[in-house]
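S1.2 Input.
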Amino acid sequence: MITPYNDEYYMRQAYMEAEKAFSMGEIPVGAIVVANNQIIARSHNFTEKLNDVTAHAEIQAITAAAEFLGGKYLSGCTMYITLEPCVMCAGALYWSQIDKIVFAARDEKRGAGRFKNELYHPKTLIQNGIMEKECSDLMKLFFENKR
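S1.3 Output.
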C-alpha cells in the first residue's frame, strides 16, 4: 500500500511547528508525536512565553502525547523533531520509552549525540537528516535576526 505518510511528511509537520515558534520569537524547534500513522501531539518551544527553561518542544510534545494516550509511556510512538534533542530532552525521551526518534538538524554544541546516543533508551531507534537543510536554515535565520 502506498501512503503519503512517511518520515518526510511528518518532519514537514514538525517544521510547521518550528515556524510557529519562529513567528513567536521562540527558538524555532518543532516536534510532533505519531502513533499508528496519526499525529497525536504537536508542539514547539515555549520557553519565552512560559518563562520556563524546560518548555522545550520535545517536553511539551511528550506531555501532550502521554495525555492523549492516557499513560506515561510512548511505546509504539515516533517523535519527529526539527533539531537534535538536548541532554534534558534526551533524558525525558529515555524515560518515555518511545520507539523511534527522527530529528532533522544536528546540534553540535548541545545535542545529546555528543554522548554517542548513550542518553537514549537502548530500544529506541534514532534517525536523522530528514529536512536537515531547511531546519538548519530556519535556525540560522532566527539567530541572524537576533544579532
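S1.4 Remarks. Strands lie at 30-35, 38-44, 77-83, 100-105, 125-128.
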